[in-house]
Design goal:
This protein is 67% helix and 4% strand. By secondary structure, the chain is mainly alpha-helical. It has a four-stranded antiparallel β-sheet, with helices on one face. A hairpin with a 2-residue loop joins strand 2 and strand 3.
Length: 524
């Protein structure tokens, strides 16, 4: 008996190896193409956005009076927001960060029109971010990368499984190119987007992210996103303070998520029925914020840099955090293309700065570098809001090149994630996906994967066609087949025949039921 079990386990291991090798040979060249394309689009978007920001700064600087500058800031923001809204109507799925939409695509709820998505997201985000809205370019780059992955999959005859892997890899490549952080791109795919740790998916995501980062660094240089002074390895005595940063970040992250959902709900009718009013509200708010500090506008890179250098005293840092917090929520509620990654990092840097100032005022005798606290604040806010702690640690480590802080950042991210969860805060992209699901009338189901076996009946629509052409529901993966008692490792060219038995990995009970009905000929 034990000998038979051992042989069966060995046979399964061999089949899995063969299947992975076949998938890898088919997938990796396509993943490389996705990485090149996603990296090129990310670089093009960055260059276009820098040009728009230069024009914005020049237009404001050309005027002598403060009130004139404020009016121009307001007008540019109003026009940019309205233009972005108008462009977004061509492809409604291009609104916001785009990450909830990518999750819906990967879960099989949404069909992406990649050709329309690319230009709408590019131009819409350019109009919105170039006009000064307090949003980031990383979310749009993630969605455009996913669209590139879908395009490559469609034009190369990829199977449904390969298509999902390429879309996820393209999204990770977009994030990697935007942040100059290849490992973060991979972990974001595995921890947040697809949550699939199969070797083939991991390898495709890693290859795409690496190539996209090479393209990005060829254009902008091999430098971290933030210039952080060398901090060295912190003393173990400072670790409780990193835990405190995690607690504060967890509380503020939970508040951020709840406020964002509330603000979006409050402005929904205004955004749809009176878009000019929504644009005017955003323009006036940006103008007032600009008069306080120009660094409050845009993605927040300069604000984060100032916080990392300790440019603000305690009171001003608190004020900037409050204004920036409100501004990000208002801008995201316009529904224009734009992400929250960079904005939440700027908020996190200010959180770290505030905690450092308070600790210094209390003179607790702990000698720590200010930059350590600001970097940890970024990590805490990301982990609490997105609830992807591993991605938070790797992303912040790569963006700041602060690899000596990995242990403190792990503590900060873990604590922030636990605190946010204890406050019953749902991860932001899960919440946004649920809102999106309600607007599109589908259910964002809980993943309850199961392995099931079916026999194809002569009346089934699956009979006589290739596996790649099989109209299987999204979330169904054929892993093994049996014909006349012989096992077959299926691929896209496998012909499905009557009385053939299939072993199918179904993502949910509903998917399993649909596959069984199709195999019996009850569902076309």
């Amino acid at each position: 008996m034990s000998e038979n079990l051992g042989q069966s386990a060995a046979a399964i291991e061999v089949r899995e190896y063969v299947q992975n090798e076949v998938s890898r040979r088919r997938l990796l060249p396509r993943a490389a193409l996705v990485g090149v394309s996603a990296g090129a689009i990310a670089v093009g978007f960055r260059v276009a956005l820098q040009s728009a920001e230069t024009f914005h700064s020049a237009a404001v600087a050309s005027l002598p009076q403060l009130w004139q500058k404020a009016i121009v800031v307001c007008l540019i923001a109003i026009i940019g927001t309205r233009v972005s809204m108008a462009i977004g109507r061509v492809e409604p799925d291009a609104g916001g960060s785009g990450i909830p939409q990518m999750k819906a695509v990967l879960e099989g709820h949404l069909e992406m029109h990649w050709s329309r998505m690319l230009w709408v997201k590019f131009l819409g985000a350019l109009a919105a971010l170039g006009s000064g809205l307090a949003l980031g370019r990383e979310g749009p780059t993630v969605q455009m990368g996913g669209a590139v992955g879908h395009a490559v999959a469609q034009h190369t005859g990829a199977t449904s499984r390969e298509q999902r892997a390429l879309i996820a890899a393209g999204s990770g490549a977009g994030l990697a190119a935007a942040f100059n952080a290849p490992l973060a791109g991979v972990t974001f795919v595995l921890e947040e987007l697809q949550r699939d740790f199969q070797p083939v998916v991991f390898t495709a995501a890693l290859l795409s992210a690496a190539i996209a980062t090479v393209i990005s660094r060829m254009a902008s240089g091999a430098f971290p996103v933030f210039a952080v002074p060398e901090v060295g390895i912190p003393s173990l005595r400072t670790l409780p303070y990193f835990a405190i940063i995690g607690v504060v970040g967890g509380i503020l992250g939970a508040m951020f998520n709840r406020c964002l959902l509330t603000t979006m709900a409050k402005f929904k009718s205004v955004r749809i029925e009176r878009p000019w009013v929504m644009s005017a509200v955003a323009g006036i708010a940006l103008s007032l914020a600009w008069m306080l500090s120009p660094s409050l506008l845009g993605g927040g890179h300069s604000l984060s840099e100032h916080a990392l250098r300790g440019a603000f005293p305690l009171g001003i840092a608190c004020g900037l955090f409050a204004v920036r917090f409100l501004l990000v929520h208002l801008c995201y509620s316009t529904g224009v293309p734009g992400g929250i990654f960079a904005p939440l990092l700027s908020l996190g840097a200010l959180v770290g700065l505030v905690i450092f100032r308070m600790q210094s005022a209390l003179d607790l005798g702990i000698h720590a570098n200010l930059a350590m606290y600001a970097v940890a604040g970024m990590c805490a806010m990301f982990a609490a809001i997105v609830r992807a702690p591993l991605t938070a640690v790797i992303l912040i480590g790569e963006m700041t090149a602060s690899y000596d802080l990995l242990l403190p950042l792990l503590i900060t991210a873990f604590v922030a994630s636990i605190v946010a969860g204890s406050l019953k805060s749902v991860p932001i992209y899960e919440s946004l996906l649920q809102r999106f699901a309600e607007s599109r009338d589908f259910s964002s189901y809980v993943d309850d994967r199961r392995l099931v076996e079916f026999e194809i009946q002569p009346t089934s629509p699956l009979t006589g066609i290739k596996l790649r052409d099989a109209p299987l529901p999204a979330g169904a993966l054929v892993v093994l087949a049996w014909k006349d008692g012989a096992e077959i490792v299926p691929n896209g060219d496998t012909i499905l025949e009557a009385r053939m038995k299939l072993s199918v990995l179904a993502r949910s009970s509903q998917v399993a039921h649909d596959v069984e009905s199709m195999a019996k000929g009850e569902l076309a």
